[in-house]
Amino acid sequence: MGEPGLIERIGRWIDHWIGQADPAGPPPILGIAGSQGSGKSTLAHEVAERFGGATLSLDDVYLTKAERADLAGRVHPLFATRGPPGTHDLDLLHRLLARLSSAGPDDRTPLPRFDKLADDRAPEADWTVVKGRPRVIVLEGWCLGATAQAATALVAPINALEAEQDADGLWRGAINDVLARDYGPLRARLDALVFLKAPSFDVVLDWRCEQEAGLMKRDAVPPGRRAALAVFVQHYERLTRHMIDGGVAADLIVDLDRDRRILGLEGADFLAATGGVAPEPASRVIAP
Questions:
Q1: DSSP per residue over 170-235, as a string?
Q2: What would the pLDDT profile of 136-194 be if each residue is shown by its tens digit?
Q3: Taking Cα atoms as reference points, which of 65, 9, 1, 37 lies closest to residue 194?
């Protein structure tokens, strides 16, 4: 039998997990993490579509614009910008996971959607509705599984945003605290986590611009928009670098090159359960 592709390998993990579980029990919850533009959303939807699953995105449970404004006023102004740990409604996410896990055949579970143009949660009338209990729940999010940093790592700013707008370290310290306190239990709910590992943070801006250009049906984003995105990705830079350097509790690490070709797979237990440890063929299977 040849080396399975990534999606086939994930399908084997789903089958393996279900084969060992109580048939009357909840479905497995698979997490997919990775930097902006790494292809995690595309992979999540392909896995769900192929194996009878439902997808949830950490992006869709952002705090509302008003809630983030309140957080910014109480803790630090940078919390007005969505994205970093602390800007998600994890209580809502836990309720959704519980509801999907226990759904009966005729139950309907509305899944929230975040309107990025409005920078706010979409009206419930626009939410997707999942009927019944999915065979697998696929949760994707850029910082899933990220581990908290040591206090000494927080002292020096790592980019212009931190140096100019978080000189005292209050924002990054608050992110680190909430990451340890609230995002650790979320990771514990996942039955496995796949991490799409970028070759370095240097590619993230290019990937993010490619992603947006695709949505705009253009070859490239305008220079002004690229400059704005260069500032935006600085909100994600610290944790993205930390995760690339090993600060992520993942069961399967998928090493990508600049073109999102798979260079290799790491994760002995996941690989053993899904067909062995042969290297993945270098092919572009991760789409932005």
A1: HHHHHHHHHIIIIIHHHHHH-SEEEEEE-S-GGGHHHHHHHHHHHHHTSSS--HHHHHHHHHHTHH
A2: 999 999 999 999 999 999 999 999 999 999 999 999 999 999 999 999 999 999 999 99
A3: 9
